[in-house]
Structure formats: structure tokens, C-alpha cells
Design goal:
By secondary structure, the protein is an alpha+beta fold. The chain has eight helices and seven strands. It has helices at residues 7-59, 66-90, 105-115, 117-123, 141-157, 190-193, 203-209, 216-227, and strands spanning 101-104, 126-129, 136-139, 165-172, 176-183, 230-236, 240-248. The strands form two sheets. The chain has a five-stranded mixed β-sheet, with helices on one face. A two-stranded antiparallel ribbon has the order 1-3. The protein is globular, with a radius of gyration of 23 Å.
Length: 249
């Protein structure tokens, strides 16, 4: 901005230049602190993973005992919580941490189902996978696995005592492939459905059933937006919920 060559113009220009320099320095300082915070969080999470692995190994000595099952459930909660924190921390630098490739959806779903078999058994829910074994989409394998796992875990958690199945199905047309995860659970009330993707929003179900962080679906939506996938949710109270991820062809 040219403020002229008068003494007033020169002085105002000098003030603006000094203020801009202070702004840039402050911005760089905040960015540096943010990066240090992310580094600390990631380092801390990896440090916490080590004792969890040791606990899991030691629990093998108590195989078959009730105490083993109880402790393993709590260890599993800690592990999921740490993973949630890690993925949340990485969202700000998403562009540095993703690779688009062809991913077989059936293989990913079956891997998640096997990893979460204790969760299914504990909640007496049966997974039904109705996917073509050859179906592939373009996405990031690590991030989309987190998204799908989070949706399945939510479906199981809110189906306990209501339904018997989590159905994983798909639809395909000339524009997209839709991965549909359908539960028979408690459902989401109308007042909450528009806010389920908001950060830290737990809603009526979260307050009623507890253990909800309000982070899972927010991360899922952010990841899908960054990858160019649409994510939709439909639900009826006491009838269940359907979450769909739409992959462009």
C-alpha cells in the first residue's frame, strides 16, 4: 500500500511494516509450538504402546482365567484411545501422511472383523459381510481402515441389547461405490443426527451409554473429506443406523 511521501505517510507505513513483522514472528512462533506439541503427542503415544504390548504378553500366562478377559478388555480400551489420539493429532498434517492406491474393501473389512472379534463376542453381535471379494476402490489404506473400524465399533457398541447383527454391504453404479455399514441398534434421535460429525459432540446416546469421546465420527468425516469420499448417515430411533462411505469411480 502506497501511503505517499509525506511524513505522515512514511510514519504510518513504518508502523504497518513493524506490525506485519511482529505478526509474522508470532505466526511462526505459534506454528513452532504446534509442531512441538504434535511431536510430543506422537512420541508419548508410541511410548504408551510399549507397556500395553508387555501387558498383553504377560496376560498369556493367565489364559482361560476370568481376570485375563477383564484386563484385556481394559487394555483394548486404552489401545483404541491411544489410536484415536494419534489419528486426531495427525489430521493437521494430513497432506504429508497419505498415499492413494487401489484397496480391496473385502480384505480390509475381514481384517477389521478378525481384529475386533472379542468386541463382537462380548456384545453378542454377529457380523454379516455381503461384499464382492474383488471390489476395489482408490483410497488411503491406513486412513480408510481407521474410518471403517470406528464406524463398526460404534455400531457394535450401540447395538448391545437391541440387535444381533452388523451388516456390511455395498451398492455400485457408474459414478460411485457405496460401502454401507448397518446396525440394528438404539439409533440416533432427530435432534442429534445433524451434529454427529461435530467435534466432541456425544449426543443423547453418548451421555446415556458413556465411553463416548465425540471424536470418532469427527475424525471419520474429516478423513473422508480429505480423501474426497462422501460419508452419509441415516438413522431411526430403536431401529438402527446406516453409515455409508461413497468412493468415486
Amino acid at each position: 500500500m502506497d501511503l505517499g511521501r509525506s511524513d505522515l505517510g512514511k510514519n504510518v507505513s513504518l508502523i504497518l511494516e513493524n506490525q506485519y513483522e511482529l505478526y509474522i514472528n508470532s505466526l511462526q512462533e505459534q506454528r513452532k509450538r504446534h509442531e512441538e506439541h504434535l511431536t510430543f503427542i506422537n512420541h508419548w503415544i508410541h511410548q504408551m504402546k510399549t507397556p500395553l504390548s508387555v501387558i498383553n504378553l504377560q496376560l498369556q500366562d493367565y489364559e482361560g482365567e476370568e481376570i485375563q478377559s477383564e484386563i484385556m478388555q481394559e487394555v483394548d480400551k486404552l489401545d483404541k484411545g491411544l489410536n484415536m489420539a494419534m489419528y486426531f493429532a495427525r489430521l493437521d498434517e494430513f497432506e504429508k501422511d497419505f498415499v492413494i492406491e487401489r484397496v480391496n474393501l473385502y480384505d480390509e473389512i475381514m481384517e477389521i472383523v478378525n481384529e475386533e472379534k472379542r468386541l463382537f463376542i462380548k456384545n453378542k453381535i454377529m457380523p454379516k459381510v455381503n461384499l464382492n471379494k474383488d471390489i476395489e476402490v482408490h483410497t488411503d489404506k491406513k486412513w480408510i481402515k481407521f474410518v471403517i473400524k470406528q464406524i463398526i465399533i460404534n455400531g457394535v457398541k450401540y447395538s448391545k441389547g437391541y440387535g444381533k447383527y452388523i451388516t456390511i454391504d455395498y451398492e455400485e453404479n457408474e459414478k460411485y461405490i457405496s460401502l454401507d455399514i448397518i446396525d440394528e441398534g438404539v439409533g440416533i434421535c432427530k435432534n442429534d443426527i445433524k451434529r454427529v460429525f461435530d467435534l466432541f459432540f456425544t449426543g443423547e446416546n453418548g451421555r446415556k451409554y458413556g465411553e463416548s469421546t465425540g471424536m470418532g465420527l469427527y475424525i471419520a468425516k474429516t478423513v473422508c473429506d480429505n480423501l474426497g469420499h462422501n460419508i452419509e448417515i441415516k438413522s431411526q430411533e430403536k431401529k438402527g443406523t446406516k453409515v455409508s462411505i461413497l468412493f468415486n469411480k
